[in-house]
Amino acid sequence: MAHISPARKAAFNILLAVERGHSHSDDLLRGKAVNALSAPDRNLATALVLGVLRWQIQLDHQIRALLSRPNAKLEPEILIALRLGAFQLLHMDRIPARAAIDESVELAKQAGNYFASGMVNAVLRKLAKTPQTANSLDQVRIVNTEGGGGFNPRNQPTVSAGALAPDNYSSEELALAQAHPAWMVERWINFYGIDAARAICRHGQSQPALTVRLTSQAVEAELRAAGINLEPGQLLTVARVVVSGDVTSTAAFLEGRARLQDEGSQLVAELTSENPGQKVTIILDCCAAPGGKTLILAERNPEARIVTMESSAPRLEQLQNRLALHAARIECRLADATALTEDSVFDLALADVPCSGTGTLDRNPEIRHRLRPEDLARQAERQRAILASALRAVRPGGCVVYSTCSLEPEENEQVVVDVLAATLNARQVSLAPRIETLLRADILTENGTQRLRGSLTPEGALRLLPGAFYTDGFYIALIERIA
User: In degrees to the nearest 10, what's the CA dihedral of 329, 334, 337, 339?
Assistant: First the structure.
């Protein structure tokens, strides 16, 4: 039996599980099978899984063009073997073509598809001989990490940008060039314009920033002493981007003094915490897991009691473990945020609602393959219910911050419009004053503040578009309950 490297075998199993809908790549890449690999193999397995998922639409297009029957139904094992081989051939410069082809063929054989393995061999050899035009494919090149180096679970392999898609690309051509569903790209062009859509697509194909939140300046010095290379964050004074080094192995990370959290996610909690002129004694976090925003709420409001809600028992347990140090003043409830019984109780509420996640395609690439246009209406129905419930729960004069990591208007401004139309005692308030207060408090950077001012919608909500900001995409709105 021919040899298959542990990294390729792990990547094959994860991609097969994702293809069958059994789990998410993020969870599987943190699982026992991957953690048992050497650091170089974990790097390569991560690069293969995320690379294949990001470029799957384009890979399938190129693979099927070389099949004798392009529309033939392929078994999942064969499809994964082909995608793995094709990705290495087209996107990983330092992987020898022979290794990419031979091990993909062997993966097909060991999956019980001995006869189909011949087809895998033939297709990949044709692909290896086909000249690739980077300009027409708008490809990025991923540097091979098989030779070693540090490993951070959230830090993907280095990506260097390829050629930009020409300005006259149609939505279908841009979608194929950047391996996104055409229906998504067409929507983004309609809502945000061609330049923003191109930036969103390219961001979705890139390595997400590994951002750490520092609890003190001493923590930064500690991380640097541990060999972690840091750069300032884009928006927040306590945020740092990890350039190199394994932050997850440091004492600061293990003890919770440095936390990994996207800067846009941190900003949501900072905007919720800032309540000018109002004393905050009790806060509601409607959909709290995994707890990163809750921790910021606790830090910024040290005397307030916080009630968190989570409808999933496993996620609630993870939330409780993460918030254990604050257990005396944080209540964790196993409850659905749409079924809140409190009325006029809370000073502040955060409704960071479940959503399609289209603002996170760089770190959650399989969303583009699972999401369907009709899913947006279902998401919006639940989002409206959560926001309406949170508005009932805050007292007159209290505020709800509504946020999603979606780029889709149905889940964002339309939810706010619909809830306000059905709620007489609420109004949308501009986030501009809170942004200025955060600047004066030295929480926002000067440059970050300038950019946020330019990202306010006419209604005063914030829209962080991937590509415009090196963060996940977010929509953030402030709703006040009035007497």
Answer: -120
